[in-house]
Each structure stands twice: as C-alpha cells, then as structure tokens.
C-alpha cells in the first residue's frame, strides 16, 4: 500500500525533482567538454606506453577484466589484455575505434548523440554494427594544432565504465 503524497502548502506548486546528472550517463555536453579539455600538446611512442601502462595500473587496481588498445595514425602502439578479458574485447575495440576514426569524437559521444535524437546508432547510422560500435570506451587522441591523430580504447566493462576509465587515465596523463 502506498502513502498518498502530501500536497504543497497553499499558493505553492509541487516541486519537480530535477534529475541528477548520472556519472554513468553523461550528457552530450559533458562528453563534448571532456574532449575539449583532453587535448594533448603531443603524443609520442613514449606517451602511448605511459598512457597504456597507466590504464593497465588503474585496471589492475580495480581487477577490471579489460583489454586496452592505443593507436596513432593507424599503427597500434600499445595493447594489453588483462585477466578476464576475452577475444571478444578485441573485436569490440576494433568496432569502437572505427567509430572514433569515422566521427572524430568518442564512441560514447556518438552513441549519446543518436540517443538524444530519440534513435540509436544501430537504427540510424546506416553503418554495419558488425564493423562499427558506438558504445563507450573509445576516445580520440587529439593533439593541439593537429586534431585527432589516434585512439585509446578500453573494452570489458559496461560502456559508461569503459569510457570513464579512459577519461580518468587521460585526465591523469594530460599536463595541466
């Protein structure tokens, strides 16, 4: 049995609760802001190793069963598969990476933009879902003055967690 809601005092309208921004479901604006903030001054082979090992360390601390991949200009510079990850994670990495390469922004942002329009990437992009996946976890490596030059991808967690892990690593990695 439910208790009826108490009406507001005379002359006042009921308060409509504002939905809190969920860390598991960032908005289009939040995702766009992340990308603007996480532009790097450069990205070398050594940077790929440093970012990749940072991601491995973060994932190990959390016992996250993920695969991690970093590419630049079509060349794989870093790849790691942690315990619990599977070959399926590598397939997801490839599909999410292709979305970043095609759209120039994070795979999570692409999927979120479609959802904000009341549709899905799979329904409306006209791209083969066996080749492209607009799920969280692939993030553009953007260099100041050069634009998007590569990708960093995590696969193995729910999409919002894959995305959040990449963003956390980039925030720690990027110079202030």
Tell me the layout of helices and strands.
Layout: H1 28-37, E1 39-40, H2 45-61, E2 67-72, E3 75-81, H3 87-103, H4 107-116, H5 121-124, E4 138-143, E5 147-155, H6 159-173
Parallel strand pairs: 1-4
Antiparallel strand pairs: 2-3, 2-5, 4-5
Helix pairs in contact: 2-6
Describe the protein in words.
The structure is a single chain. The protein is α+β, with helices and mostly antiparallel strands and 176 residues long. The chain contains six helices and five strands. The chain has a five-stranded mixed sheet with strand order 1-4-5-2-3.
Structure, briefly:
The protein is an alpha+beta fold and 176 residues long. Helices cover 41% and strands 17% of the residues. The radius of gyration is 19 Å and the shape is globular.
Strand composition percent: 15-25%
Average residue-wise pLDDT: 89
Helix share, percent: 40-55%
Shape: globular
Keywords:
176 residues, alpha+beta, 17% strand, globular
């Amino acid at each position: 049995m439910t208790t009826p809601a108490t009406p507001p005092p005379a002359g006042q309208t009921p308060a409509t609760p504002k939905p809190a921004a969920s860390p598991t479901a960032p908005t289009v604006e939040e995702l766009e802001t992340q990308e603007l903030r996480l532009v790097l001054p450069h990205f070398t082979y050594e940077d790929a190793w440093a970012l990749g090992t940072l991601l491995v360390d973060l994932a190990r601390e959390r016992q996250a069963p993920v695969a991690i991949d970093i590419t630049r200009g079509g060349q794989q510079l870093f790849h790691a598969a942690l315990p619990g990850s599977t070959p399926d994670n590598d397939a997801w990495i490839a599909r999410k990476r292709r979305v970043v390469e095609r759209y120039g922004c994070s795979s999570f942002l692409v999927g979120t933009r479609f959802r904000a329009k009341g549709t899905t990437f799979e329904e409306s992009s006209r791209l083969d879902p066996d080749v492209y996946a607009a799920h969280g976890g692939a993030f553009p490596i953007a260099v100041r003055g050069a634009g998007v030059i590569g990708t960093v991808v995590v696969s193995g967690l729910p999409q919002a967690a894959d995305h959040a892990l990449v963003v956390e690593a980039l925030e720690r990695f990027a110079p202030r």
